[in-house]
């Protein structure tokens, strides 16, 4: 498996970084996951645009353009596609602030950012004929107040995800202190109620998911569904006709249980296949 680290392509086993890297010491960096199926990316441009906004926000000057990054990703996909992964690859791009002389909270940006890109096998795009049903946990969102930054500091997300995983759940949906849905530990959340598709409106408590963005755009352009970006309370979630998760690797995932409460009697509802079908047709 070939990876890219700081200007060079190499076998994964040869990739080494310093323990003084601020990505390791502080989780001081950002990342992206871009899905690719048979060499075709889903949302490469918006994923990279979000990464550049994140880099600006935390004052890291990467020194690579989007098209340079795309060439690197293209080469990794070409080298790493094989029969085993069937050409279904997630491209993971991580930029950390790099090595500085001492461990000190303030940064000087005297080092070069560390750029690491690797690919990993992902599931093929969801099929509406053989869908996966997600069973999810729910809990209070105890992460920090800048969840709009796609940072590699993921301990909060990891703890929330693990709490569900250890109890046999596939994901964990999170609520703010007013009991409104923020997102899930690695996905955005949608519900359907009386034919209206709803998702929480964006703020600093959730990531502006690219799958969410593309899905909203597709629904507004290519369907007659009514779509709302609005607050969703815990009781609205539990009483929803359908609940979905979106993320780069899931696309639209249908939820059939939220922490013991069955959604649509535990069966994937009728809107999901239409919407996943539209996503498959129009994803860019
Ligand atoms: N996770 N919210 C959080 C906290 C996430 O980590 C993710 C993505 C999303 C969905 O964003 P997008 O549609 O851009 O993938 C929402 C990625 C896939 C991960 O950490 O592996």
Compose a concise summary of this entry:
The protein has 284 residues and is of the alpha+beta class.
In words, what does this structure look like?
With 284 residues, the protein is of the alpha+beta class. The protein has 7 helices and 15 strands. The chain has helices at 22-26, 44-57, 66-80, 155-165, 210-222, 234-238, 271-282, and strands at 2-5, 8-11, 29-37, 40-41, 88-96, 114-121, 133-140, 171-175, 181-184, 188-193, 196-199, 226-229, 242-247, 251-258, 261-262. Strands 7, 8, 9, 10, 11, 12, 13, 14 and 15 form a 9-stranded mixed β-sheet that branches. Strand 10 and strand 11 form a beta hairpin. The radius of gyration is 19 Å and the shape is globular. It starts with a strand and ends with a helix. The mean pLDDT is 97. It binds N-(5'-phosphopyridoxyl)-D-alanine (PDD). Belongs to the class-IV pyridoxal-phosphate-dependent aminotransferase family. This is Aminodeoxychorismate lyase. Keywords: Aminotransferase, Folate biosynthesis, Pyridoxal phosphate, Transferase.
Q: How is the main sheet built?
A: 9 strands, mixed
Q: Rg from C-alpha positions?
A: 19 Å
Shape assignment: globular
CATH third-level topology of the largest domain: D-amino Acid Aminotransferase, Chain A, domain 2
- The CATH class assignment of the largest domain is Alpha Beta
Q: How many strands?
A: 15
Into which percent range does the helicity of residues fall? 25-40%
CATH H-level homologous superfamily name of the largest domain:
D-amino Acid Aminotransferase, subunit A, domain 2
